[in-house]
Amino acid sequence: MSSSRRSILGIWVIERETGRNIVARAYAGIDVDMDLIAPFLSATHTFIDRAANDQLKTIDTEGSRYVWVGNEHLLLVMVVSKAARIGHMRFLLEYALDEFMKTMIPEGTDLGAMLKKWQGSPETFSAFGKFLDELVAQYEVTDESLIAGKSMDCLEVYNHLFREIMRVDVGRNVKKRIVKDIQSKIEPLIERYPFLSSVPVDEAGLEVLEINVLSNDIPYKILREALEDLFRVVSQCVRQNVDPDKYQANIFNNVMRYVKEDLRRLQTYAILDDVVRYLF
Asked: Which terminal residue of the chain, N or C, has fewer Cβ atoms less than 10 Å from its own Cβ?
């Protein structure tokens, strides 16, 4: 694949305390020069200090963009094209970080202790490097990239909608009743769509971003059907437990405010139809 069509140019896994590269991947079809790797080879500590600022989301260079996620010990950094969707890239990084924590830490120890004993051999984490290669290859294949992108977009939009719906101005006891009602009524949906079992339901909303569309190989059409059914149930539960005036106020003050801000995606994926059909 030519570099002009790539979204992901490179990935680094960095030990936060020392700045050591645990895994470094630059992908075929790009020229690896000092503009790309200098922040990691000569100024890693400066980058980590900046990345520690929670308000900072990305760092731009002339031709690319750095995106990252991290924890106490690790920083996963992705170099992407300016055209790449940042939400999708961060989703992939979070997925990769979760995979690292699940598969690369030997039983009976923790990440901090493991890194202190690590002598710097790249072979130690070669399996994770191969995992990153496969993850990137899956995303970069044109058809799969489009499908994965559509699925992630839909998850992001519905996640926002669920949060706005649950912002209705009612007491905590009513919120708890709504949550209990939703949990009860989505049980048949979970039987039909097992991947919905990973979705937490609480007073803040439904965190559908927990659905892992990459590892579960969920067809886009099935995902959309599940999200629409979930939206219908949540809308009904809120409407049935809330005073009509408060329900209407929330729809216009919160839900529709978000709809206006993200109207293009709601129209593109026909989610606007669900909003009109189930909320009014």
From this structure: C
Contacts with 147 (C-beta within 8 Å, 6 or more apart), sequence order:
220
Report whether 71 contacts 97 (CB < 8 A).
yes
How long is the chain? Answer: 280
Q: What's the DSSP call for residue 106?
A: P
Residue 140 CA from chain centroid, whole number: 17
- pLDDT tens profile 150-190: 788 889 999 999 999 999 999 999 999 999 999 999 999 99
Report the C-alpha gap between 229 and 241 in whole angstroms.
19
**Residue spans per domain, the chain:** 3-140, 144-279
Question: What CATH class does 3-140 carry?
Answer: alpha beta
Cα separation, 108 vs 102, in Å, equals 13
User: Contact, 8 vs 89, CB < 8 A?
Assistant: yes
pTM (predicted TM-score): 0.53
Residue 254 DSSP symbol: I
Task: Characterize 31-42 residue by residue with b for buried, 16 or more Cβ atoms within 10 angstroms of its Cβ, and e for exposed.
Answer: eeeeebbebbee
**Start-to-end Cα distance in the chain:** 46
